[in-house]
Design a protein that fits this description.
carbon-sulfur lyase activity, CENP-V/GFA domain-containing protein, mainly beta, single chain
C-alpha cells in the first residue's frame, strides 16, 4: 500500500490516502462545475483505498453543499483550501480528495475533465459509489493522530 499525505495550507485539515495504486496510476478528475473550477479542484480516489481525515480545530472545518446538495465539500475556514468531498449514505461514507492538496501532486497525471453536472442525481450517486473511496475515517487532533 502507498500512503499519500496532504493537507490544507495551514495544516488544520490533514488527509492520508492509502491506496494500492502509485501516484502515476491515479487519474485526477477536474470537475467543470463553477465551484470546483473556481477552487482549481481535481479529484482523486480509489474505491479500494482508505482515507483518514484529521481535523486540528473542529470549529474551523467548513463545509459547503451546492447544486442538488448531494455531496459535502470540506474546506478549512482558516486558510480557505478545499481538501475533500464526501457523501454519507445509509451504508457508509464515500469521499474523494482534492489532488492539489496532496504532497505528491506533481507525481499525478494531468487532470481530465469530468462533467457530473450533466448527470441526474441518481447517476451522480452511482458514479460516486463506483469511483470514490468507501473506507473513510475521521479523527481529531485529540485522538493522538496529529
Amino acid at each position: 500500500m502507498n500512503t499519500l499525505h496532504g493537507q490544507c495550507h495551514c495544516g488544520n485539515l490533514r488527509i492520508d490516502l492509502r491506496t494500492a495504486s502509485t501516484p502515476s496510476q491515479l487519474q485526477p478528475r477536474a470537475c467543470d462545475c463553477g465551484f470546483c473550477t473556481r477552487h482549481g479542484a481535481a479529484w482523486v480516489s480509489d474505491p479500494h483505498g482508505r482515507l483518514d481525515i484529521t481535523v486540528q480545530d473542529q470549529a474551523a472545518l467548513g463545509d459547503y453543499r451546492q447544486g442538488a446538495n448531494l455531496a459535502r465539500f470540506l474546506l478549512c475556514r482558516h486558510c480557505g483550501v478545499l481538501v475533500a468531498v464526501e457523501r454519507e449514505e445509509a451504508d457508509g461514507r464515500f469521499a474523494a480528495v482534492n489532488a492539489r492538496c496532496l504532497d505528491d501532486a506533481a507525481s499525478l497525471p494531468a487532470a481530465v475533465t469530468a462533467s457530473p453536472q450533466r448527470l441526474s442525481a441518481d447517476e451522480k450517486q452511482a458514479r460516486w459509489r463506483q469511483l470514490w473511496i468507501a473506507d473513510v475515517h475521521w479523527h481529531s487532533a485529540r485522538d493522538g493522530r496529529s
